[in-house]
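Researcher: If only I could read backbone structure tokens as easily as an amino acid sequence. Walk me, if you will, through where the backbone shape changes along the chain. I have put the entry right below:
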Amino acid sequence: MEKPVTSKFSLISKFMHEKLNYLQQHSNLSSTKAALANMRRGIGKIPGDIPELWGMLFENLDDSMMSRNTEKGPSWEEWALYISLTMFALHQQGKDIEKECMHKPEESLGKAIRKLVKDEESENRVLRKFNVLATSIGMQEIQHHLRGIIQLLSANSVPLDYIKLAYDLYRWQTPDGPQQVRLQWGQDYYSKNTENNDESLLTKE
């Protein structure tokens, strides 16, 4: 039975907001630093595989978002939240989460990736990575290719809306979801409202 997408946005948003807010407000605690390190270690794994990350993922997770049949693996929501939180930890590595938080509302993946473009050469390189991500099949493949993009964003101190990313990853797993998310990513990447669009990339007459 198809899960209603719209009913999940508020739950995903609330969960991610609370987790990110907690990490930012308790950034100086050794337990927070350890949690972020464990989250980075969880990249490439399946939700639930690492006991140290159970609390990160399952604490305060609404029952409706948990897998009802563990034999079928993690739920759509568990995959989306897990990947988003572990990628945030990677994005935040080496940065003061209180002073330079890499979560920024309204900074969608398409818009963030566009900010990596400095010239035609860099655009070709960035688009190759983006295209591979956008044509990924399965959450483990998405996780693998997303990691490289997040590392680029981190190296250039470009933030990302991790609440929106989580919802995008949830939608990706729904019927017709990949096509819808790819469309949104493409629109955001080429949006004229995206900051720092390089005028040198425009075709000269």
User: Anything to note?
Assistant: Residues 6-25 form the longest helix (20 residues).
